[in-house]
Amino acid sequence: MTRPALVETMEPGDELRPLVRVPTREQCVRYAGAANDFSPIHFDDAHARRRGFDQIIVHGLLKAAFLGDLLETWSAPQAGWVQRLSTQYRGTDVPGQPLICRARVANTAVTDGRRRVDLELWIDNARGETTTRGTATVVFEPKAEERR
Amino acid sequence: MTVGAATRAPETLSAELRRLGSWVGTAPRREVTAESVARFRSALRAAGSSGAEDTAGAGAAMAVPPTYFCPDPVAEVLAMGLPRPTEPAHSIDGGSEWRLIRPVQVGDVLTSVGQVVDVTSRFARDGRPLVRTTVEVRTWNQDGALVGVATGAIVNVDPSSSTTPRSDVSGSPEPKPGAAVPSLTIERTTMDDIVRWTAATGDFSPVHYDRAVAEERGFAGPLVNGPWKSAMLMQMLTKWLGDRGRVEHLRCRYVRADVVGGRLTFSGEAKASHDTEQEPRLECEVWVEDESGRRTVTGSATVSMRPAFAKGVRELPVDELKEALGVGRVTHEFAYRVDPNDVARFRAAVAGGNHPAEGMTPLPGETAPPTFYAALDPVERRDLLLEGCLDIVPFRKVGGGNAFNEVVYERPLVAGDRITVRTSYEDVYERPGRSGRLLFRVRVNKLVDSSGSLVATTRMGHVLAYDLEATS
């Protein structure tokens, strides 16, 4: 198992290990229930077709959540937390197709012992389209020995 | 009161009748209740308005039909106790007119004053003396603002002729080219329509429900109320306009009586527009035809169009939507708990079986996933329903969805938090896009914890695409 990249050693341009997710129809239903977002376009094919899609589409916010998951998986073991997350949805995605969730360090800064890492985020789908873009700031609280 | 006699010449009659012109009556102040509005709408239900439409936009103010403030000006002034000529003995409703100044809302308190404004007499085309009494009802709301002026015409004719009163206008003109208003057809008027109208308006003239009285007056059966026909024409116009404009003025002449039981077709056509003012106006001709194609009501309407919907203007009504969403003005507040089980369910849904351990319920104080703010959004939760205002967009929707989401945390959301969400719309704007004109709505949620500290601020951007060449 690869360990998460240590934040102290990361520089602008470094990428996190991508997270690959294949959202399923069931996951869309589960997410609708978990997020209280019951727009039928995410679980009703007939409704989606009336709206001009071939089938249901994945929630934009589920894709944002995948990016959140990518950031948490990297930062939580190092006492980091997602302080800011911004996502824009440029294209739609359908269940059953892999989504490659990526993050690249844009900037790092340390103030009062807290390290702030700004990242660029994006999701590519199997057709090579970037359907989601975003930015985030992850804050790492000082470690015990650094606080002294 | 008896005025004049049928045998006297119209000019003699006129002098006496004019004295009526100073009479003024006042109706008791009355509150516009949801029940009375429902009763009025029920009287027009034959026009195809379903119950669903009547309650459209639950929580929103119930739409009050335009002529509600005075559905039948003649019945209204008679209820106020105003006198009218009793001879010639048979009176019919000659026509009605409404100037609609300000929409009425449920909860308003209306005060009406009625007045006889004119009395004229002449000989009808068949030689019978005819007296026409014009009455006017002006109605104000609780703020002292005039909501509308309704005018009615009482036509008294001699009963000697037993035929259906004839039209006092010559044959119906052929409609000229122009935008046709989608017509309404009532296959068969029923006593039920009449009784509902009577209940809504309080017009208990027996000629509308008592067959013996109607036959004695020379009609084949009870008569459909003229103002009911006007109200149906009004309904036709308001359905056609939707939110694109409103009827300012409707004038109808009841040129033939309709016996209950026949088919009636309500039609209209836009004739001319006056684009000289800020609010462009459209003149329409309206009419009602019986089953043999005779026009039994002729009339005209003036409608004012919202600027955005005026001819040639193809813009989204951004300012109206800003107003409807309360941009920069209105904040809605909702209280939610960050339930540990909900957090577990959210994590499990996002993980999709990739890390089974994430389905475990967090302990209070454990961090929620960074996008958990989505589960606390009052709009996605359908706790805040403001989508109804989009009905005013007259164009066809061709797509839409979430455009962007942003969150800035002051501290992470944790299981067990009690969060108050304050939602307000920050902006509405439009932009050209590939799939049509794009309408963006941006709302801001402030998430505050039980100690009053700000936890997070989110911005939720939603987009809809409209085809400005296609109307909805």
Helical amount of chain B: 10-25%
Radius of gyration of chain A: 17 Å
Low-confidence stretches of chain B: 1-7, 47-61, 161-177
The CATH superfamily of the largest domain in chain B is known as Hotdog Thioesterase
Q: Please report the number of helical segments of chain B.
A: 9
Per CATH, which architecture of the domain at 11-23 and 58-147 in chain A? Answer: Roll
- What is the chain-wise order of helices and strands of chain B? HEEHHHEEEEEHHHEEEEHEHEEEE
Let me know the CATH homologous superfamily of the domain at 11-23 and 58-147 in chain A.
Hotdog Thioesterase
CATH T-level fold name of the domain at 11-23 and 58-147 in chain A: Thiol Ester Dehydrase, Chain A
Global structural class of chain A: alpha+beta
Shape of chain B: elongated
State the low-pLDDT regions of chain A, or none: none
Number of domains of chain B: 2
Main sheet overview of chain A: 5 strands, antiparallel
The fraction of residues assigned to DSSP E strands of chain B is 35-45%
State the major sheet of chain B: 11 strands, antiparallel
Shape of chain A: elongated
Question: What descriptive keywords fit this protein?
Answer:
heterodimer; A: alpha+beta; Thiol Ester Dehydrase, Chain A; five-stranded antiparallel sheet; 4 helices; 5 strands; elongated; B: 472 residues; alpha+beta; eleven-stranded antiparallel sheet; 36% strand; disordered N terminus
